[in-house]
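Sample pair:
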Amino acid sequence: MNMKRMLITLIGLLLAAATPAMAADPDTSLADRTPLMYASIDAGVSIVPDRDVRFFRLPSTLENDTGWTVGAEIGSQATEHLRFGLSVLYNRFKTSSVQIWPNPIPKSGGQVDMVRPIWNFYYDFSFLDEFLRPYVGVGLGAVWAQFDSTSLGYGETSDWGLAFVAHAGTHIALTDMWLLKVGYRYNTTGSLWNDQENFIFGNISSHDFIAGVRMDF
């Protein structure tokens, strides 16, 4: 399936499931309203460290440009502090060059796209009468990654693997139903493309800085 179509379908299903049944009572606290459901969307920049890879068994260095990320999540505020949710995350970044040793001349790079369904667990804090709600969390799921190395002469290749995420950030209450989300995600994967003779990538890690909105219902 086309990656863009897959991403749009997954996010659409998450958001469709988040249609609110009723508005929250504005005179009740978060503790009184739990359990409740929520849905969120976010976007931001993705900083991907350079990494060592192998092309045709030659040690090489992949230099990466700053990319971008979008995400959508639907979940449940189970208690005042505990929350869990299912998210779909998409990342794209380009490789500015690939240094293939012993050839000292950098070659133009390619593009990496990743789709990750992730099951997340969070712990929420609450300050200033629930106006500020910092959070930390962890997530585990899968990743589908595609590396387009056509400019290197190697074509396209894709692979599945494990995905791990660590979250930190805060929600800022705009109304009883709507919250502003500002956060950080650390993403890493299990080893990718390790079973291929000519291309060994290893894991992919990124630092995502995001902003978005959340709706409680």
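Residues 3-16 form the longest helix (14 residues).
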